[in-house]
Amino acid sequence: MAEQKKIYDPEERTAKLAERVRDFYLKLPKNPANNEYIPQLVRAGSSPGANYIEANESIGDKDFKMKIKTCRRESKEPAYWLRRVVTDNSKNMEDERVALRQEAREFILIFTSILKKREKHE
User: Fold this and answer.
1) End-to-end distance of the chain based on CA atoms, in angstroms?
2) Which of 61, 71, 95, 106 could bridge 51 with an S-S bond, Cβ 3.0-4.6 Å?
3) Which domains does the chain have, with CATH numbers?
4) Cα 107 from Cα 17, distance rounded (Å)
5) Cα dihedral sign for 114, 119, 121, 122?
6) CB-CB contact of 70 with 34 (8 Å)
7) CB 10 within 8 A of CB 75
8) Cβ–Cβ contacts within 10 Å for residue 36, how many?
9) DSSP label of 57
10) Contact 111, 68 (CB under 8 A)
11) Is 49 in contact with 18 (CB distance < 8 Å)?
């Protein structure tokens, strides 16, 4: 597996997360559990990015901070659903699950950092 270069633009990086979650779910086995979990995972995987776009279009500092807090909260959900889905237990699928969960966790840190920097400049 080729090492992926880190993207530092949160809008692009959240879009990549949504795409990676989509590609991951397309490889998941179809079963009753995944039939329930997959729709949640797909929505959760794209939510941080959609909320980040809204934050960048905010109408003021208070609105921006509230939307970034939403981004942070919504970044927790993909990790939760990634833990729940049933894979085929192959090394590739499990490695991808781990990588996606780590990326979701990193967004929590990124959005927390954005909030702290904004509050520092008040």
Assistant:
1) 44
2) 71
3) 10-120 (1.20.1440.60)
4) 10
5) positive
6) no
7) no
8) 11
9) T
10) yes
11) yes
Residue 91 is encoded by which pair of tokens?
A: 């090394």
The label of the residue with tokens 């990326």 reads: 103
Q: What is the pTM of this model?
A: 0.85
Cα distance between residue 2 and residue 25, in whole Å = 20
The pair of three-digit structure tokens given for residue 41, joined into one six-digit string: 């995972």
Q: How many CB atoms lie within 10 A of CB 87?
A: 16
Tokens coding 83:
């833990």
- Note the residue count of the chain: 122
Are the CB atoms for 7 and 16 separated by under 8 Å?
yes
Res. 6 pLDDT band, cuts 50 70 90: low
Q: pLDDT of 63-104, one tens digit each?
A: 999 999 999 999 999 999 999 999 999 999 999 999 999 999
